[in-house]
Write a structure and sequence with these properties.
The protein is built from 11 helices and 16 strands. The protein has about 350 residues and is of the alpha+beta class. Strands 9, 10, 11, 14, 15 and 16 form a 6-stranded antiparallel sheet that branches.
């Protein structure tokens, strides 16, 4: 078997937070999947100043020693390396869109979803509108801009339309709390979603992988929520800074998240809905969706998180492991799909769907 040359695209063109988050996951991926008989790993590291570096490793020392170069010089270097596959490790909006599009132009295949789909998924209202049109239940909501007034009666969840890790998210139980919640959400995005609060229930994530063109539902991951003490998950439930300045993945704490027993009746129900979401959005290779389960056991789509770093701590990696698929095999499956037939779901071809949520003017 020929050795595949894989370029890990790491860092962030947006800010230091996303740079650190990307480096954290990519470093774990490199350590866990390095097989010299199979892969030749290269690293491209991008910083918020839009400079590129090609370090030997993702240690802070090696990154500091790597010479920063411009995008034009980086393109010249990359095209000379005969890269077989690019593995995206960037979680910022430019990383998920512009930088993936660059590799489309370079005709270098990459694992994961396309830039246009990543842009849709990053905008929670657009993703909700598309899956709702495919028959998936979503909380009733509206999209607000600065100066707009909510019309939905509390309780509601207010959140930025395009931010991750529950930044700027607030549960509003009384209309008097609207102003403070909106102010907080608008700190992270120019558009804000106000959506009806779905009573608990449970909160789960479902991953889908594509193998030989077929959709495979993975075991669910469930998160610690409580109707009284913790009705929604917050930023503190997901990430935290350690004393040495590094990010710690709070969501990987087994007291906060765990794999659901595959025999739990909710598993098959959520997997079927997740496959419908995957097909409606036109995902390829893999997908990941968050669902709120109401007291009657009905799944409600919350958002799509269409990324996987193939690190042991990645959600899809954890789900695959629980299904008996080791990380090295998971990566091989994704690479085979990328280099092979690359079959995808059927996307709903209607640009009007992204505007079906009420937008206050």
């Amino acid at each position: 078997m020929p050795v595949l040359r894989i370029l890990h695209l790491v860092g962030s063109a947006q800010d230091d937070f996303y740079c650190d988050l990307s480096r954290l996951y990519a470093e774990d991926c490199l350590a866990a999947t390095a097989e010299r008989s199979r892969y030749d790993f290269q690293i491209a590291y991008i910083t918020p100043d839009r400079q590129w570096r090609f370090p030997r490793s993702l240690s802070r020392e090696d990154i500091a020693q790597a010479k920063p170069i411009s995008v034009s010089d980086a393109i010249e270097l990359i095209t000379a390396q005969n890269i077989d596959v690019m593995l995206p490790q960037m979680f910022c909006i430019p990383g998920m869109t512009h930088y993936r599009a660059l590799f489309d132009l370079l005709k270098i295949p990459y694992v994961g979803n396309t830039p246009d789909l990543m842009a849709i998924a990053a905008h929670k209202a657009k993703a909700k509108a598309i899956v709702e049109a495919a028959g998936v239940k979503v909380p009733r909501g509206e999209l607000l801009r600065q100066g707009d007034v909510p019309t939905i009666t509390p309780p509601v969840v207010i959140k930025p339309a395009s931010s991750d890790n529950s930044l700027g998210v607030t549960l509003v139980k009384d209309a008097s709390e609207y102003d403070a919640a909106l102010k907080k959400a608008f700190e992270y995005a120019s558009e804000v979603i106000v959506e009806a609060f779905i009573e608990l229930g449970r909160e789960v994530r479902c991953g889908i992988i594509v193998k030989d063109g077929e959709l495979i539902g993975l075991p669910l991951e469930e998160y610690l929520v409580d109707p009284d003490e913790k009705p929604i998950r917050t930023y503190a439930d997901k990430l935290q800074k350690t004393e040495d300045g590094n990010l710690h993945l709070m969501a990987k704490d087994k007291t906060r998240a765990w794999i659901v027993d595959p025999n739990d009746p909710i598993t098959e129900k959520v997997q079927q809905v997740a496959k419908k979401c995957h097909q409606a959005l036109g995902c390829r290779h893999y997908s990941l969706f968050d669902f709120r389960i109401d007291p009657e056991g009905q799944p409600w789509f919350l958002e799509a998180g269409l990324y996987c770093s193939f690190a042991p701590k990645s959600v899809i990696s954890s789900m695959a492991k629980a299904a008996g698929i080791p990380l090295t095999e998971l990566l091989m499956i994704a690479i085979d799909e990328t280099l092979g037939s690359n079959k995808t779901g059927v996307r709903i071809q209607n640009s009007e769907l992204v505007n079906t949520l009420p937008i206050k003017r």
